[in-house]
Amino acid sequence: MATFPISRYSLSIAFLVFSFVTQAASLELSFSLKRFDKHQNLDSDIALFGDAQIVDGDSSVKITRPSVTSAGRLIYKKRISFIGGDGRKPMSFSTHFSFSISRENGDGLAFVILPTSFPTDLFDGSSFGLTPGLEKRGTRFLAIEFDTSMDTKLGDPNGNHIGVDVGSLVSAKVKNVSSVNLVLNSGKKLYSWIDYDAKIKKLEVRLSDSGDVRPSVPLLSYGIDLSEMWKEEDVFVGISSSSGNSSQTASVYSWSFSLRSIPSWLHSQPVDPRVYANPSKLPVVHKRSTCFLRILAGLIFGTCCGALAAFIAMFVWTIYANRRRPSVVPVEFPVHPVEFAYEKIKVAVVKPTKDGSNN
Prior knowledge:
It is a single chain. The protein has a single domain, classed as Jelly Rolls, CATH 2.60.120.200. Strand 6 and strand 7 form a beta hairpin. By secondary structure, the protein is α+β, with helices and mostly antiparallel strands. 18% of the residues lie in helices and 28% in strands.
């Protein structure tokens, strides 16, 4: 029976399965700003408001200056919507940025999602550069605050916490950053991952002092439906900060963002679309998350099924091809002459007589 390279077909099937899964997640928008430099053409991507400015020395954006009531904002210029795609499905997003906050007890900074009607150039020098009266004006906004001050009026538990602000500067949910042995205003570079899963309507926030390790366990989780919050209204994403009544400064060193539509069958936990936006450099995960394990298990299962199907198809094809081949005549061995020796044998027959004697 003829043999065929199973490994080659298995790899082909695996590639097709991976391509199918990758393409099933439709990427709507993605950007990655690994550094900020005045010589780069960033005007088409970002806008700086207030005191925010690019600092060439450390390739960063310093959002606030070392002065009282300083405020600034970094905004990505392109509008996004949390309902998109051909089927007008709710959209998921992931963002990752590195930042540092000086040791003074200012307001800190916040990742913000603002409606396009929001006055991006309006500041009052407090509350992350967001006007305290926003909720009174009915402005729908979302802010993930990295707060370094304790304001009892806003329900802050301490001066080292993160919180989710939904249409109000009073956080809907907070988490003490000291629980993971980190200090927001230590002056050191910190890294944050914020993921929103439109399928299960959950927002997760991760924080680390190492950019190479994405924590498997979120520091804060919060249930929210962004598609209901803004419907099909366009919004802006950005990072905003204010120094409060201090000389605190806040800087951003890198920032990436991905918005995509994820099929419901692909995952049931928040995902990281940066994997698809930059497949050549996958993010390093300290512990395999449940989502990653499920995707990996799906890929392995699909690959095995594909390989098995390919094996069966090739096996049946091989049998069928062998049946159609003409019969093979067996090889005949040459016949050599063989000599046989023989001798004449005389046989004597004795006939009996009538008296019983033999002649």
